[in-house]
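Sample pair:
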Amino acid sequence: MNWIEGFISDCQARGMTWHSIQTYRSQVNFFLLKYNPLKSGFDDMRTFLIELRGKGLHGSTLRGYFVAISAFYDYLVLEGAIKSNPVPQFRKRYLHIKEAHNGENTRQLISIQDMQLLVNAAASIQERAIILILAKTGIRRGELLSLTVNDIDIKNGIIRIPTKLKRSNQIAFMDNEFRDILEQYLSWRKRYAKSDWLWVTKAGGRIHKDHPGRILAHLAENIGLHEKEGPICRRLTPHCCRHWFTTWLYRAGMDPEHIKWLRGDSLSSESWQIYNHIDIEEVRQEYLRRIPKLISFDMKITMFTR
């Protein structure tokens, strides 16, 4: 049986985009050139991983290959060709979890409901805006701190993120609830700002670089989501919001290549072939459909502007 064509039909039936399907086809075919999926185990996958590393691939590109291969194995399980998918356990050992001296060195993933609690617990409009921008855009802390008021385009629902070494895409989108909060924050900011920096103190200066982390830690600790002296997996940091953004968009069914684009992941020669075909308006519309809502009706009623 031609498993790859059956797999591609399965991807089409699941509603995946043309770009994602072609990426999956290419990555799975590369694996199938040397390995029999009905007989391959950890030894073959280790050899394949070493081969990919030898080609200079790393990080999200390596993980992308094994996401595609895992999806293929899931299809084989569905078809009854194999009993179980070995890839998740393989990825856990070789591509995701590192051991730290005091626990698993993995970022905490909180639920959508917990993120809503954090937003609701914010003590000021600035705190609420910072939590929302971290959660709704997946922006890195350094990128957040580098924003100026001129980077915020309320009318078009766009944030222009200044160029950074790690970032390939300079655009983030706003949904309606995020836009409302930013409008309120900008109104508050006018009373104090003495520069173009987006995030300012009441004295008018730029906020401290640790301020976003302190906000998250304080609020999260109060609702049981942060252990100050605990391992990384029990702390809530700005990077956890990037993890949250990525995971919940993926679980909502967003095209993985669109998520990569929104994250601004570094471009490799391979990923450029994908990014070169990105339709920005298509990404925006899918983002607006998939991004979780974090402000309830009751929260809107009690919204403040202090």
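The first strand starts at residue 99 and ends at 100.
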